[in-house]
Each structure stands twice: as C-alpha cells, then as structure tokens.
Design goal:
- Keywords: DNA-binding, Transcription, Transcription regulation.
- This is LysR family transcriptional regulator.
- Residues 4-61 form the HTH lysR-type domain.
- The chain is α/β, with parallel strands linked by helices and 328 residues long.
- Helices cover 40% and strands 22% of the residues.
- The chain is built from ten helices and twelve strands.
- β7 (197-200), α7 (205-216) and β8 (222-226) form a beta-alpha-beta unit.
- The longest helix is centred in the first third of the chain and has 28 residues, at 62-89.
- The two termini are 63 Å apart.
Length: 328
C-alpha cells in the first residue's frame, strides 16, 4: 500500500492552489528547497510522477490530480472527525449509558433524555433497567457509565470506585382503598394504619423501606401480600386487599393513571382515582433517597456531566412540594 503522508499531501494541495514552489514555501513557512524535497519524497512513496516542468515553473501531472481528488476526500473526512471530536470534548456528542431502577426510568431518565435530545441532539443516552446491585456491577465492569439507585442500596460515599451524587428525596405517600374509613381522615399518620394489612415486597429495597418507615412510626407492618410490581400493588389496594406506601416518583411515572381523567387536579393532601386514595403523610414525611453514581474520576467528562445536569433538572421537577400530590 502506498504511503499517503498527510503533511506532504497538504503541501501538494497548497502548490496546486498557489501555482509556484516559492509561493507555497512562503504560505507554509518552509524554504523552496524543503517544499521540493517533501514533494519528491511523496512522489517516491506513491510511485508516480507528481510534477513536470512547464517553462520556468512546474505543474501537476494527471497522476497528481488523481492523488489530490482522493486527498480532498481524506481532508474533508478529517475535518468532520475534528468537528465530532470537538463536540465530544465539549459534551455535545457521544454516548452515555445509564443503568436505572424501574421507577427512575419514566420519572427521571426519560425526561432527562428528552431534554438532551432537544438541547444536545448529538449526545445519545442509552438506558438499561437494573436494580441497585446489578446496576453497580454494570458500572464497575464498564457496561454502563452511570447508575441510578436508592441511597440505602448504593455504595457508601467512601467507596473508592464510585462518586455519588444525591438527586432527590422522594416522598412516600400511602395508598388506601378509595372507600377506606381513613381515606378522608385529615392529618392521617402512619401510626393510624398500624392494624391494617400491608402490601410490600417480600425482600429487597421496597421491603426494607416500608418496614423502616413503619417502624419509625412505632409499629411493625403486618404483611398481608407480597408484591414488587407497582401495578400489582396498585390493583390489590384498589381491590381492598390492603394499604401500601407508594413513592411519589412512581406516581409521576404513570402509576394508577387508569380511571383518572387527563389533567385531573390534585386535592389538598391527596388524590383519588382508579379505586385508590393516595394521601400525603405530612406529619411523618417518609422519604426514599435517590442517588446517581459514576466511576470515580469520570464525573468531569463533559457528556456525563451534561447527563447528570439533566437528571438533576428532572429530579427538581419531581419535588414541587408536599401539600398536593401532583397528577401523573
């Protein structure tokens, strides 16, 4: 294969544009002798004659014209590569892979990705659903660039492998059957539900979060049914089979949308629809804390920084205040 030396090809292109060796040398800050030597070396490397005498000047041969046509395509591609690289370095292009737990995807990741498609269309976000343990395994092995999880199940801030960023404290509201005697109780507290049958996961994050919140209110919840899927929990509550804590973020992601009109207004302290009444626990104020984590040292990468900023913006939109449960 011929040796296509880019530096020498640029000299040939400049000679073609300016017409003389002297003018080429001046433009490139070389001596005329150096220009001639570079072009002689290029001709030797390509195995063709590039220049021929034309009076007291030189002109490009047909072979040189052919070489230049291909060289121009190479130069154009390099310009595009430079532009793409600059975009990458400025966080305007590239790909960021996110591993996130299920309720974080519609509530945080999708709004962030949508905003980035509008503001930075060259920056691609790839999503992979994964619960905390799996998300951090993917992050450690390099399969994702950012992991979203609950703080209780994230590596500690002292973990040398990861840097953590707090995104939001997600309020936990209580879901009761719509006809429940306490559904309209003003100032409802968790302790008021101590004798109720509860619905939560048999293990994992949601089991721990529910039991911790209830124990902080002074009782151990009686688990009547075990479920981890929010739509299943919602259906059982609607059927009168028990009560459950639901994260505000899951509501924003569309949980319980069936049975409610589009844009249905919230009611002070709660909301009803689909056979379920959702009440804000103003006095108890239980929360689950959502964090993002990246491999330590990568947080300064421009593309990743833009994604983190978009996630913070989406998180801020999730916390309008506790007086009203916002419609999903």
């Amino acid at each position: 294969m011929a040796d296509w030396d880019l530096k020498k090809l640029r000299i040939l292109r400049t000679l073609h544009e300016l017409g003389t060796v002297t003018a080429t040398a001046e433009a490139l800050h070389l001596t005329p002798s150096a220009v001639s030597q570079q072009l002689t070396g290029l001709a030797r490397a390509l195995g063709v004659t590039l220049l021929e005498a034309h009076g007291r000047r030189v002109r490009l041969t047909d072979a040189a014209q052919l070489v230049l046509r291909h060289a121009e395509a190479v130069f154009a591609q390099l310009e595009r590569a430079d532009a793409d690289l600059l975009g990458y370095l400025q966080g305007e292009a590239g790909q960021v892979r996110i591993g996130a737990f299920s309720t974080a995807i519609p509530a945080l990741v999708v709004p962030a990705a949508s905003e980035l498609r509008r503001s930075h269309p060259g920056l691609s976000v790839v999503v992979r659903e994964a619960e905390a343990e799996a998300a951090y395994e993917l992050l450690a092995e390099g399969s994702v660039d950012l992991a979203l999880s609950l703080a209780a199940h994230a590596p500690t801030p002292r973990d040398p492998k990861f840097s953590r960023v707090s995104l939001l404290a997600d309020p936990l509201d209580v879901a009761l059957p719509a006809g429940h005697p306490l559904a309209g109780e003003p100032g409802l507290r968790l302790a008021d539900l101590a004798d109720e049958p509860w619905i939560f996961g048999s293990s994992g994050p949601w089991s721990q979060i529910t039991t911790t919140a209830c124990e902080s209110a002074g009782f151990v919840p009686e688990q009547a049914h075990a479920a981890a899927d929010w739509s299943a929990i919602w259906a059982m509550v609607a059927a009168g089979m028990g009560v459950a804590l639901v994260p505000r973020m899951a509501m924003a992601g569309g949980l319980g949308a069936a049975g409610r009109g589009a844009g249905e207004p919230g009611v002070r302290g709660g909301r009803e629809g689909g056979g379920v009444a959702v009440r804000v626990l103003h006095a108890d104020q239980p929360r689950r804390h959502v964090v993002a984590a990246v491999r330590r040292g990568s947080e300064g990468a421009p593309g990743l920084a833009r994604v983190l900023a978009a996630l913070r913006q989406a998180a801020a939109a999730q916390t309008p205040g506790d007086t009203t449960v916002q419609p999903s």
